[in-house]
Design a protein that fits this description.
alpha/beta; six-stranded parallel β-sheet; 15 helices
Length: about 375
């Protein structure tokens, strides 16, 4: 692989969701990521999160399999695992053991609740983690119950992306002379961090701890989603006065004085109703013709299929087709380093032989490992 992380080797103990997303990010940007898959059927269906890796199947219930994983870790710059606290230690693959073998190793741990705390040993999913961090509370309109934003904020924004950042930071520290270390990446912590701006506004009494009544949570008429005549939707984000004025002019509200006091919150509900009535007069495409390519801070709300085929996304190659499967392209972009087009996920164990050859395991030892049930 080419990319800014070229020359970095990462071992990824296969999981679901945020761990694979971190592995995908590192692999997309040039790291050699080796996926250690479990023996037997896959625990989850193949997704783009598994792309760009080689795969080896190792039996972690087999003593020789554990020894092989430890041997692989000696050749790596980093490890990613997403098990509950204590699982890797019970396998003999915890950070104490692996850092003893490889003092410069960066050991990334991805969990929902973190490695310690009253909830640390409990099961959970994205919805639970962002509930505890206070993020889910604000995800809805006024008077309605919280709506989980799929699993974007916990699993991916506060989880996998945060772990990828931590891995790169610690790897850079090692390059600058530091020793390896453990990264405790918890989705509760990461999703809380994503809400830093809102905490700042709250501390200045500029944000109420209520749903759907604030500047960015659909409380404001100029920052909301509106239904159109054809039962589709458009997104409006005209916060700045100059952009707000352009919006008013374009949709025919420039001469309605109630809209002059943009930040008068007591008027917001009535102004939202008026704007909804206006947007109901035209189809989404008709509003695109009026508002696209202006500074009204407008965009149509697109389905996944529509997003893939939008001219802006086509020109930027925001989505790629990889052997018949549409998926988002690697991001961000670099001015000098060109990222390779991702490769489709390898079947579990597809690269066992070549990976073992790379670390000096000969054919006789490979056969012995197979015969012992340590690898497939």
């Amino acid at each position: 692989m080419t990319g800014p992380l070229g020359g970095i080797r990462i071992l990824e103990f296969t999981g679901i969701g945020p761990g694979p997303f971190c592995g995908m990010m590192l692999a997309d940007h040039g790291a050699e990521v080796i996926r250690i898959d479990r023996m037997g059927p896959r625990a989850a269906p193949e997704t783009p999160l598994d792309r760009n890796r080689r795969s080896i199947c190792i039996n972690m219930k087999n003593e020789k399999g554990v020894a092989l994983a430890r041997r692989l870790a000696k050749t790596a710059d980093g490890v990613i695992e997403g098990f509950r606290p204590g699982v890797m230690e019970r396998l003999g693959l915890g950070p104490d053991e692996l850092l003893k073998d490889n003092p410069e190793l960066v050991y990334g741990r991805m969990t929902g609740w973190g490695q310690y705390g009253p909830y640390a040993d409990r099961a959970g999913h994205d919805i639970n983690y962002i509930a505890l961090s206070g993020v889910l509370h604000g995800c809805s309109r006024a008077g309605e119950k919280p709506v989980p934003p799929v699993n974007y904020l916990g699993d991916f924004g506060g989880g996998g992306m945060m772990l990828a950042f931590g891995m790169v930071s610690a790897l850079l520290a090692v390059k600058n002379g530091a020793k390896g270390q453990v990264i405790d990446c918890a989705m509760t912590d990461g999703s809380a961090l994503l809400s830093s701006l809102i905490w700042g506004l709250r501390n200045q009494s500029l944000w109420r701890d209520e749903r759907g009544v604030n500047l960015l949570d659909t409380g404001a008429p100029f920052y909301d989603v509106y239904e159109t005549k054809d039962e589709k939707f458009v997104a409006i984000g005209a916060i700045e006065p100059a952009f707000y004025n352009i919006l008013r002019q374009r949709i025919g509200l420039e001469n309605e004085p109630d809209f002059d006091a943009q930040l008068e919150q007591s008027k917001w509900p009535a102004l939202k109703s008026r704007m909804q009535a206006v947007f109901h007069t035209k189809t989404r495409d008709e509003w695109c013709a009026i508002l696209e390519h202006t500074d009204a801070c407008f965009a149509p709300v697109l389905s996944m299929e529509e997003a893939k085929n939008h001219p802006h996304n086509i020109e930027r190659e925001t989505f790629l087709d990889i052997e018949g499967n549409a998926q988002p392209a690697p991001a961000p972009r670099y001015s000098k380093t060109k990222l390779e087009k991702p490769k489709k996920p390898a079947p579990p164990g597809a690269d066992t032989q070549t990976i073992l050859t790379d670390i000096g395991v000969d054919a006789l030892e490979v056969k012995a490992l197979i015969d012992s049930g340590a690898i497939a």
